[in-house]
Write a structure and sequence with these properties.
Distance between the termini: 39 Å
Radius of gyration: 19 Å
Pfam families: Epimerase
Structural class: alpha/beta
Bound molecules: NADPH dihydro-nicotinamide-adenine-dinucleotide phosphate, the ligand C[C@H]1O[C@H](OP(=O)(O)OP(=O)(O)OC[C@H]2O[C@@H](n3cnc4c(=O)[nH]c(N)nc43)[C@H](O)[C@@H]2O)[C@@H](O)[C@@H](O)C1=O
Function: Catalyzes the two-step NADP-dependent conversion of GDP-4-dehydro-6-deoxy-D-mannose to GDP-fucose, involving an epimerase and a reductase reaction.
Enzyme class: oxidoreductase
Keywords: Isomerase, Multifunctional enzyme, NADP, Oxidoreductase
Strand order of the largest sheet: 2-1-3-4-5-10
CATH architecture of one domain: 3-Layer(aba) Sandwich
Organism: Pelomonas candidula
Length: about 300
Amino acid sequence: MKRVLLTGGTGMVGRNVAEHAAAADYELIAPDSRELDLRNQSAVDSYLLKLQPDIVIHAAGRVGGIQANIREPVVFLLDNLDMGRNIVGAARNAGVKRLINLGSSCMYPRETHNPIPEDAVLTGALEPTNEGYALAKIATARLCDYISKESPEYQYKTLLPCNLFGRHDKFDPRHSHMVPAIIHKLHQAKLSDAPQVDIWGDGTARREFMYSGDLADCIWQAVDRFDNLPSMMNVGLGHDLTVNEYYRAAADVIGYQGEFVHDLTKPVGMRQKMVDVSRASAWGWQAKTSIVEGLRLTYQYYIQEISK
Ligand SMILES: NC(=O)C1=CN([C@@H]2O[C@H](COP(=O)(O)OP(=O)(O)OC[C@H]3O[C@@H](n4cnc5c(N)ncnc54)[C@H](OP(=O)(O)O)[C@@H]3O)[C@@H](O)[C@H]2O)C=CC1
Ligand SMILES: C[C@H]1O[C@H](OP(=O)(O)OP(=O)(O)OC[C@H]2O[C@@H](n3cnc4c(=O)[nH]c(N)nc43)[C@H](O)[C@@H]2O)[C@@H](O)[C@@H](O)C1=O
């Protein structure tokens, strides 16, 4: 049975990977940050030398929404840089031949043609609101690429997911991305019978939010069909909605009937950030969960696990 080291196992992506049916076919090892702080290079080196996994899935990260990124660029840059270089460097030192690194659509330039192809990385200035995080993700993806080119027996590949939401997401507005924030705000407004809910910005920014269960499915397919997995591959829906449309779709799912008010003092980030999914389609993977079905499943999880 193949031994898989999963970093970030207690996070949203990591928990969806561990919950996926395919996990049963592997020996899955998923230390949390108390067992293995990925910022500690010597600890990571000795852990990998001892564990000798057949493949590493790097899904750990310092991750947050636009406000968290604006608030703490230093820790978003340093933590993700340290984690990325430590896990990738330790895997190579331990002779681990396969690694799947999670990048992000934030790696793409602020102004670029949408949908965004994988070779758009580093072709333009980054989005200022999450530049630190993006720089760390780009550096780690490039490190994987350089290692694979220098020593082809090492194949370290990067998946670039669009925005994500789903079970095990962060719903605290101080850290959350837009979709979990919407679910939290509309549920609380429904409970308190609040007449209106704030939308950050004018609501015309566009986003591609994919259900995290689908990313987990793609990751396990990548483990299973690793040899013909592209070295850089976007993972997304292939379509997007405006911020306003996400609020309206969530209001229908949650049953909130109040009004929306646009708070123009709030940051809005990139105008659009939709990834080109043609490489993933050619490789044989497509997302299965619609945004509305994803909202329904996530709201169900929120009610059962978060709001109780
Ligand atoms: N969420 C999204 O919209 C998107 C996420 N991604 C990428 O997907 C990956 C996972 O994101 P997501 O699941 O949402 O993130 P979460 O914040 O939900 O989880 C992050 C995980 O990383 C772990 N972690 C953080 N710091 C350390 C550390 N110092 N040592 C060891 N583990 C650490 C956390 O463990 P602990 O709880 O113990 O701190 C947690 O398990 C990241 O690489 C992110 O960049 C890409 C695109 C979109
Ligand atoms: C995933 C990827 O993308 C992240 O960047 P982002 O997409 O800008 O993050 P976001 O989901 O927080 O915002 C999306 C949009 O939504 C609008 N918006 C409306 N109302 C709320 C709201 O209530 N909360 C939030 N957070 N946003 C809101 C908000 O104004 C913005 O226009 C990186 O941080 C980084 O994590 C990264 O890798």
